[in-house]
Structures are given as structure tokens and as C-alpha cells.
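Reopening this ticket.

The earlier resolution said the output was attached, but the attachment link was broken on my side. Pasting everything inline this time so it's all in one place.
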Amino acid sequence: MTHDDLLALGAVEQRRLIGQRRLSPLELMQACIARIEALNPAVNAVCATDFERALAAARRAEAAVMSGAPLPLLHGLPLGVKDLLDTEGLLSTSGNIALRGHVPAADHGLVAQLRRAGAIVACKTNTPDMGAGGNTRNPVWGATGNPFDPRLNAGGSSGGSAAALATGMLPLCTGSDTGGSLRIPSALCGVVGLRPSPGLVANRSRPLGWSAISVLGPMGRDVADAALMLAACVGLDRHDALSYPADAAAFWPLPACDLSRLRVAFSEDFGFAAVDPAIRRVLRARVAALAPHVAAVEPLHIDLGEADFAFDVIRAEAFVAGFGDCDPATLGPNVRANVELARGITLADRARAHQAQTRIARAFAQALERVDLIVAPVLPVSPFPWTELYAEVVDGQRMANYYRWLALCYGVTLSAHPALSLPCGRDEQGMPFGLQVVGRRHGDAELLAAAHALQQALAANPETERPRPDLAALRKPRPELKSIVTHPPVFDGLAPDAAALRMAPV
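Inline output:
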């Protein structure tokens, strides 16, 4: 089997072959490293690499297979870690100039958990400065280009993870989501990202422990891969106020789903978001394509009238908690904008915002008593050039700030319901289209099962199958993706282990 054949397989199939001694973890890691070296110069998805230690870990994983020892769920699978999460001994910058030499002494809790599940950290994946924004670009590593057209943006803030998955550089990657940071890049790059119910994946690093807007979650090329990874991510962490017990067996193997019994509601805009007419047309076409497979499809009528205000306040609240004491000169413009907004927020504003969020959560819960799933677009526009920080105008409406164009995602965030970006063909510009699929709160297993069944049904139609980028076209480096680097990585006199700080080719 050639490297290309290996990397065309999903994580589930790779893991099955490893367990059957038909695929060497070392061979798989070598194939991923070769793909990164070949294609990363075109998309700039991968930033810091840890290839030497990853190859050593892959050799140990191979020895465990050959010894007949019990193998954990993700045994031998290469993993990309979003650069917001600390990785022991490996450069972790968050795309921020003040952290450009940061080498953590310990893993983030999720990274440690995934290592225990057998995954092997190969590298870090690119993110906007401190993860703020729907376009992955920062002053440390530069911009990530879309694998379907590197001149366009890959989404954010998990853009590096999504681009790495779409190009087959890695079988699994971590992501995180506040206003859509898992769903947005997954939609733009044609992969799957799950925003789980808050607390399902523990995250003790949130500065506001009871805030439900920021979550960690899995990313894969299809629903089955994301479900496999989620099963390795769940579990109670008593240091996380929102964490709750969950059984990995509920998520993997995926439970069965009878599509013919599902009731689906759809919305083009959730009653408040600006959406381009072309995206509305694609959503209607996708609803028409799924309708023959399910029991019923109906329009969703829901009131998210105060979602913009609620998200402005609750997001700013989280940012001031995380960055309010930082030197503003070290923060990117998106982060500074959130912190500055918080300075004018009153206690009355906070009360009104949390009341609005409560109403939104109840409205989604009520709708999902009548139907099993809600579907909508992930994004209101086709991807735009990465040189543009955000979509300033949507459907003729000027956006009030850098994240207003993400309203379709943050409206769902406020509901605290799980949501998944399902790759579903291409839009009218020939770029990937992501269908946002929302399930019941704490119904993540049922959501994954339904999304998997939908993906299988829609894969039979060339108009709705998961799109794949032209890998041959990505063998041409695009140095302009590094052109916004104003502060190249330096280490401020630190002398960390050089092997742990090896950079991917750019």
C-alpha cells in the first residue's frame, strides 16, 4: 500500500488495520510527515512540528501491536493539536507574539487524555491570534490557505486543523469552538467538526468555569472519525465546573440510526442572521436532497432576536476574564476589540444578555421536542481571500464587528446545544458547503449517529458527497501565506530542546 493509499483511508480504517497488524504505526507516521512536507508549503496549516519524538512514539506503538498487548482506542494514530492547547516540550504560541517562544512543561488536559488513548502528537496546527476570528492568520506563523484554493481563507479559529485534515496530512485534529471555531473551518475545508454539549469534553483552562460558550471538540474527515475521537475525549474532570460523566461506549461504535424515522426542521437564517442569496439557494437544495431520506422536513420558526447583543456581552465577558490583565500591545486587534467592548458593559447589560441566552436555549429545546434535528448553513458566504480579515458585508449589510458574519454559528452556541458541520457538496462558487446539524442538548451520540446516516445517504449523490481538494495542485508552495508575519518566532534567550521546536517547512 502506497503512502497515498494509506492517507486516503479514514482514521477508523487506519486504526482497524493497525489492530489487525496490517498497518504499521511507524509507516503511517512516516506517510503523514511526507504529506506535510509536500503540501504544507501550499496551505500553511501546520506550524511547529515534533517529528522526531512522534517517530519514536510510533516505533513504541508498533512494538505494542506486535507484542499482542491491549491497544487503546486511538493507538498509533497521528494527531494534530490546535496551537491554542499546550503541548509538553513543543512550541505552543497561540499565534501570539508574546508567546512566540513558549514551550510548555506539561500537556493541556485534553492533549494528555488523547495521548493516553494512544494518539501520537505530530505537530501543532495554525490558529488566529489567541483564537479570535473566523480567518486563520497571525503575526507568528502567517495565514492558512484553503485547500480548495489557497488564495481563499480556511476559516477559523481551527483553520489549520481543518486544512490539515482535508489534505490528508493528519487523520485526526483537535479543535475548539466559541462562536463557530470548529464548525466554520470544517465547513470551508470540507471536513467534519463537532461542537459538543458544554461539559462533555472537559476543559479546565476556561477562565470562567461556568461559561458554556467555549468548548473543545474533535475534528475528522468524516463523522465516523469524529465520533471515534470524541469517544477518547469524554469523561468527568472534577476541576471543570461543567464536566459530567459520559461513557465512551455511547459514542463508539456509533449507534444505529433509522433515517426514515427522523423529523428535520430547517432554517436559512435563524430569523436574525444576514445570509447571501446564493447560500440560501444551496441550503434549499440540500434540504430537498435530504427530504426523501427522512420522515418529515419542515421550516423552523424561532426567535433569536437578541442573539447579537447576548453574544457581544457574553463573549466580551469571557475575553476580559482571559486577557484583561494582558499588555494590549501583545494582543491582536480582534482580542483587543473584545476586551475594549467589555469596559463599557454594565451589570444590567450582563443580566439582560444572560436572560436572552436562557430564552434562546429554551427556544431550541422546545423546537427539538417536536423534531429530531435542526439544519442550517454554517456560514452566510462562500470563502473570501485570506487577505481580508473578515466578511465586512453580507447580503448588502455591513457587519458591525469582525465576528458578526458568524451569526449562524454563535446563535447555536448560545443555545448550548451540540452542533456538527457536515460536508455537503459544493456551493455555487465551487467551494465546500457545510450543513450545520443541531441536536438535543446532551444528545451528542444521537446527533453523531444521525449525521453519519445522513452522510452515507448523501454520499451517493455527486452534488452532496464530501468534496475533496485537488492534491496535485497543492504541490506548488505559496510563500505569500507567510507575508503577514511581522514578528517571526524567537525564543527570547530560552534554550529549549531543539528537536522539540522543529518547524514545518513553510
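Reporter confirms the inline version is readable. The mean pLDDT is 94. The first helix runs from residue 3 to 8.
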